[in-house]
Specification:
The complex is a heterodimer. Chain A is mainly β. Chain A is built from no helices and eleven strands. Chain A is about 0% helix and about 50% strand. By secondary structure, chain B is mainly beta. The chains are: A mainly beta, B mainly beta.
């Protein structure tokens, strides 16, 4: 059973470009979470999704950031018009269906905005 | 929402000694407390978790204790080994739901050979 997969592992963008981060949850997991980690800080919750639904996006910046988890395919975290402050590691986690809340993390995508 | 504080931020121990990392939380309704280990350049790996109906849980060299009255929980690593060197994060449920986690700021543990 493959773990949570994220790609790309490293992403370099210039200011104003778009960044797309992908996350494939573990097999059988229907819940996906995105976290952002700045250097030497803990992970900050951004958004929690189930298939085709955003459950909680209270940690997501109101502008330029969006997330989706379509019926087919990976979850996507999209950052439009990136700025240098978006440079961080973005981690995705997944968990099984209702009743078991343990989250399993992917290796992360390190975004660098030049 | 939940507020989680973690101490110390850095910890160095000699190989074979014990290491203890402490976290406090603010939401008395929180009932699930996981600990994650993050190695350089990798994602976080769940190493142990505890639910509020027990006060202690142990898995080989790793144990977690929970004091609900004082709202703090601790990670204990015994007989430390160099491969235990990593950043450790505690977490507690965000807004009362175990599915969204609030993380502590992390502890860089270094085990000196």
């Amino acid at each position: 059973n493959a773990g949570v997969m994220q790609n790309p592992r490293h992403l370099v963008r210039r200011r104003g470009q778009e960044a797309r981060l992908r996350c494939s949850p573990m097999k059988g997991h229907s819940h996906v979470y995105w976290y952002r980690q700045l250097p030497e800080e803990g992970l900050k919750f951004m958004v929690y999704l189930q298939k085709e639904n955003i459950i909680d996006e209270s940690g997501m910046p109101k502008e330029r950031f969006s997330a989706e988890f379509p019926k087919e395919g990976p979850s996507i975290l999209r950052i439009q018009q990136v700025v240098r402050g978006d440079s961080a590691a973005y981690f995705c986690a997944s968990s099984p269906p209702a009743g078991r809340e343990t989250q399993y993390f992917g290796p992360g995508t390190r975004l660098l905005v030049l | 929402g939940e507020n989680v504080e973690q101490h110390p931020s850095t910890l160095s121990v000699q190989e074979g000694d014990s290491a203890v990392i402490k976290c406090t939380y603010s939401d008395s309704a929180s009932n699930y407390f996981p600990w994650y280990k993050q190695e350089l350049g990798k994602g976080s790996q769940l190493i142990i978790d505890i639910r509020s109906n027990v006060g202690e849980k142990k898995d080989q060299r790793i144990a977690v204790t929970l004091n609900k009255t004082a709202k703090h929980f601790s990670l204990h690593i015994t007989e430390t080994q160099p491969e235990d060197s990593a950043v450790y994060f505690c977490a507690a449920p965000h807004s009362g739901s175990a599915r969204q986690l609030t993380f502590g700021s992390g502890t860089q543990l270094t085990v000196l050979p």
